[in-house]
Each structure stands twice: as structure tokens, then as C-alpha cells.
Amino acid sequence: MKTRRAFLQNITMASAGLPFLTINASSLGNIYKSDDKVLRVALLGLGGYAQRVAESIQSCKRVKITGLISGTPDKLKTWSAKYNVPEKSCYNYQNFDSIKDNPEVDAVYVITPNSLHREFTIRAAKAGKHVICEKPMAINVKEGEEMIAACKKANVKLLIGYRMHFEPHTLEVIRMRNEGDFGQIKFFQGLCGFRIGDPAQWRLSKALAGGGSLMDIGIYAINGCRYMVGEEPIWVTAQETKTDPVKFKEGVDETIQFQFGFKSGAVASCLSTYNMNNLDRFFLNGEKGFAEMLPSTGYGPIKGKTNKGEINAPVVVHQTEQMDQMAGILFDGKKPVVPVDGEEGLKDLKIIEAIYKAVATGKKVSL
Ligand code: NAD
């Protein structure tokens, strides 16, 4: 994409002579061409995050909304008018399987409460559509495996909505780590949380959410730990703190601290909570230097610095970047720097289960 290239060149030139780090165009992966195939996506579950995704898609170079699936007829009416989706491409949860006969839809993006991801992913796969599914991909490992198997059987791709895997500051830290700028990695700290409101919402229902803060926001510390350290953890210990057992019922965690060990000898210390606002920080340290992301996984702008200076990378709308890059993955076989496939989602679920086991037993759990 011409404007992107010009933008990146401008950034490099503007920062010449300053103690800033620059990111080069190739680390962003895609330079779009006008003849790139457009990804036609149907959004399933028209709630808060779907709204953000829908708005972000309006700025995409190669993605458009061509279908809508919702249980609320009024939403279908409003959204179809707003995003110019014909009535024949609007479905409810009962008739959604007939999307298989709709040649205008390439992929279904599942954006419902967590426990519904499995069912809708499998139904979309059976309808012959690629699936993009929000994080966490499911509420347990077994369901995640079933989703991967269903997509394989239907010969469609399964991608998880890991938007940070396309975020330029994040990618720059990964590039620097790979080039040895921080030396041998020794330590990571991931702190992720917000203070949750309405006690009646699905995020506080074990049946719909599959857990509590760990499933929803702590997953960013788990996933981030893996891409920042660049290694898979081999053991975990964890401790839970619950100050409000009325709001955070059995099986819904309020705050969990967890620690990882890695084969290299690196260790990590993380915290996931539904009881602190503006908690969003990653810190990575190696033998030679550090990287700090603050904020690290919110909608941005993401800010990062290292012992060499501030990271000066393009500020992007995460969901716009994610969707354009996913079009490249689905149609052109592009390989992202950090994977976003079902297996990647499953790795996080395995760690989540191990953390819950470590909390329940008080013991170190091997991964
Ligand atoms: P939300 O409550 O705003 O929206 C959920 C939607 O699902 C609503 O439209 C609701 O009507 C629908 N729904 C269908 N069946 C339902 C049921 N049985 N109970 C409740 N709602 C039902 O939630 P959200 O914030 O949009 O989250 C949806 C998914 O997106 C979750 O998996 C969440 O983890 C994920 N998410 C991801 C990000 C990200 O940055 N990647 C951010 C927010 C949410």
C-alpha cells in the first residue's frame, strides 16, 4: 500500500538523529495491492466488541461485511442498514446454517460470549466458511480441540482474534528480541486487568464465560508472555484472591497471580484481575536490556520503550490491521510473525486449565 509505505518512510526520516527506534515496512508484513482478493465476512453476535470490529472494518483495504447473524431482529435491521448488508444475508441463530448457500460470505467472525464459541464455530465450519473466533477460543481444551477438528474436517481455516499479534510496537519488541538486543531473556511480567461493573453480565457467569478474569483479560498476560519471551512455559504456580465472593461466584475468579518457568531458565510473574482499573503493562528483561509496553494490550495507542529508547512504530487501529492481515492469511497463505490459528488458541487454553489446577491444588503444575 503506497500510503502506508510513505507513512513508514516518513516516520523513519522524522526520527533520524533522534534516540528513537524505527520499524521498517517489512515487519508489518502486508503491502496491499489493488487486486488483492477481498475477504467477505459475516459477523455473528452483534454486541460491544462486534460494534468495534464493524467500525474498524470500514477502514480495511481488503475486508468487507457481507453478512450478519444475531438473535435480535432489531439489531439485524439497524446493522444491515448501517453496513449495507442485504436482508438475504442476515440470519438468526436458528436459520444461520443456511449461510452455506450464500456465495457472498467467505468467513464467519464469532463474537459471542465464550461458551458459545464452540457451537457457532462448528456450525460455520460445517457451512463451509472459514472461521475467525474471538478469544478465548473456547471455555476448555476439549472444546478447543473439537473446534480445530471440525475446521480441519470441513477444510476451512480457523483463526483466533489475537489482535496484538499484528500490533507494530509489539512486533518491534519481538524483532529486537529475536535479534538479541535484550540478550538471553530472563524475566517477564504481565499485568492485565480492569474493574468489572454490572454483576449480571455474562462475563460473571461461569456457564457463559467459562471462568472469570483469567479467561477474559488474564489471557492477554498468558499469550503475551509466550510471544514476548518467545518460548513455551513448562510449569506454572498460581494463587487466587477473592475479596467479593458475592459478585465473583464459585468458578469465577476475581484476581489470580501466576508464575511460569521456561526451559531456558527464564521465569514470569503475572497478574489477572477484575478489580483494578488501568492495569495493562508488560515488562521483559534479558541479560542485556529491557522492553516495557505501557499500555500493552488495550485498544491503544500502545506505547513501548526499551533500554535503547522509545519505540517509534506506526499507530494502527488494531482490528483494522488484524482483519486486513487475516485476509492475507486466509487467501494468500501469509504466515504471521506470531500465529493466530486454532492451535495457538489451544495453547492458551491448556495454560488456563493448568493455572486453575494450580490454584485448586496449591501445587506446581507441569505443562
Ligand atoms: P457483549 O456482551 O457486548 O456482546 C455479546 C453478544 O453476544 C451480544 O450481542 C449478545 O446479544 C450475544 N449473545 C448471543 N447469545 C447470548 C447469550 N446466550 N447470552 C449473552 N449474550 C448472547 O460482549 P463482547 O464484549 O462483545 O464480547 C464478545 C466476545 O468478544 C467474547 O468472547 C470476548 O472475550 C471477545 N472480546 C474480545 C476483545 C478483543 O480485544 N479481542 C474485546 C472484547 C471482547
TrEMBL record:
Residues 39-162 form the Gfo/Idh/MocA-like oxidoreductase N-terminal domain. Keywords: Oxidoreductase. The keyword Lipid metabolism does not apply. It comes from the Bacteria. Residues 173-291 form the GFO/IDH/MocA-like oxidoreductase domain. The keyword Oxidoreductase applies. Pfam families: GFO_IDH_MocA, GFO_IDH_MocA_C3. Gene3D superfamilies: Dihydrodipicolinate Reductase, domain 2, NAD(P)-binding Rossmann-like Domain. Belongs to the Gfo/Idh/MocA family. This is Gfo/Idh/MocA family oxidoreductase. It comes from Niabella ginsengisoli.
